[in-house]
Amino acid sequence: MSKDEQKDSSLVGYIHKLSPIKTSSKNTNTKYFDCKIQVANEKAVRVVCYSPEKRVTIQQAWQNNSPVKIVGTKRNRTTTFNANSEEYTITKPAKITRAVVDFEMNESVAHHLVTVKDSLCANIFETVDLKVKTRKKATHNHQ
Questions:
Q1: Is 87 exposed, middle or buried (CB count within 10 Å of its CB: 0-12, 13-18, 19+)?
Q2: Average pLDDT of the chain, as a whole number
Q3: CA-closest candidate to residue 85, choices 49, 47, 45
Q4: Where on the tree of life does the source sit, at the highest rank (predicted)?
């Protein structure tokens, strides 16, 4: 076990923000996807998986808004310079099954919606979501 990871653990909750399968910028042979798992009424953690075949099971739970239990995750101690966020990796032998939880799905926990002003004060490398409306400014030709 490396110093960046703790012992195997389990995550139980709802899937949010499931990404498509991506290719690593460091190694083009490495495929992965990520998502957020809502583990409590007001808490979500980021999860990365390097086994693209597991995405089908996670996608079904995501589409059906069904909670899952993932046995065989490792918590990453270092998460992109942000000590306040939790990140896990789904290991190759991990098992993903249906689960029952004692909280409702809460879409807002997976988003970090902030104002533009607040985003400028965010920690470096912290992920924030912005909702903006742009308007086309009329241009006048002054001669």
A1: middle
A2: 80
A3: 45
A4: Eukaryota
Enter the tokens of residue 89: 């990796």
Mean local confidence (pLDDT), 59-78: 90
pTM of the entire structure?
0.70
Q: Which amino acid is at 16?
A: H
- Top-tier CATH class for 9-104: mainly beta
Sequence ranges of the domains in the chain = 9-104
